[in-house]
């Protein structure tokens, strides 16, 4: 919901420009709404063109000094930052749950997975290392330097308002860049609290800046000539736009986008832990995860497990995220709820079997919330909307296959490649799956295979644009440019070897 003014009794979200939290002069605002109650928590401005320009200018000024800051100094800032996040974990989780709707344990997990990247950034001294080859020719050494790019920008989604910003700016800043962050306008408050803690940890003025807004601000970041790289996580539609526009403007771009993650279950899988894992991965965070196991492929005898799956899903408690015992919180907005309900209706209309209908759950005390309960379809086939589209809600669709080969072919025929999983006790089958599946991240008896920051997020195909993923080893390369130096030093009494007009380094 956008408004032209702002009420005096509702908090306003600030911009962060050059180390100061400043009130926007915008006339365009959006309400930050508690998805469980529709209570307006705050109003967030859509930054003006001048404000975006000021944020980039501050980052550009700060870069000159920050790039020369010793790597140990940068690392110590992130050592302090990770401790501040730990000290404020309960506060951050509560704020995230209020504006995004997640359960408190899931909100804490959101913060913690971002914290892991901050801890990794604190080890930047071991990550940003070049290479050296000594005496590649007579008295000649060659070595590489990993140098920062300059001003970088990040555009983050609503579903992980702590984790994904923490994927981006800590690694960008630790490698010597400065940063302009645009968080989701739907739930920016926990992101702003993390920005406050970053300043408290010692991030200098201008090194981290935050602006808010919609399409106009996104386009401004894509177009600005002083921004050298953009990292994006969000929908395929917006990510494709960002990649094309920013690439045309000469920037490095990485875009993590939509998904349709398949979990393949073989009949020899351990039944109870597999069913528990699938239900948690499908319905946790109300299905609002790009890595949700939203699509199940039951192979052979595993098709008989559907009733047990339904029983477990039906037992999940739907409610406000802040209420103890809640398993499935609300969707982010009324529009999101209506879209998910529309896709459920389309599944019925197209002939899928509705095993469990989560529409219109009764949540006492939160009747105005954006709730959809766990929903399960069987008899799903490619070509149905509930299979072809990312639902981004608590809806699990089930397909069937006679063999592992058929299941692999089904997964590989889907254009998306964020994540997949196989459940089996057969090591040979698991190895065959991991080798033949054309998906960037594979879980074996684990439904959400998001790697720890020692590695990198490696979604593939239509789920990703750009060669390098966020965090981990790959993002160090994304946020730096490699400079190769070939050097020879002469002694004062070196008589030389005569003129050489060839390309040789002899």
From TrEMBL:
InterPro entries: Ald_DH/histidinol_DH, Ald_DH_C, Ald_DH_CS_CYS, Ald_DH_N, Aldehyde_DH_dom, MeMal-semiAld_DH. The lineage of its organism: Bacteria, Pseudomonadati, Pseudomonadota, Gammaproteobacteria, Lysobacterales. The keyword Oxidoreductase applies. Gene3D superfamilies: Aldehyde Dehydrogenase, Chain A, domain 1, Aldehyde Dehydrogenase, Chain A, domain 2. This is methylmalonate-semialdehyde dehydrogenase (CoA acylating). Belongs to the aldehyde dehydrogenase family. Residues 21-485 form the Aldehyde dehydrogenase domain. Signal peptide: none annotated. The keyword Nuclease does not apply. Keywords: NAD, Oxidoreductase. It comes from Stenotrophomonas mori. SUPFAM superfamilies: ALDH-like. It comes from the Bacteria. Its EC number is 1.2.1.27.
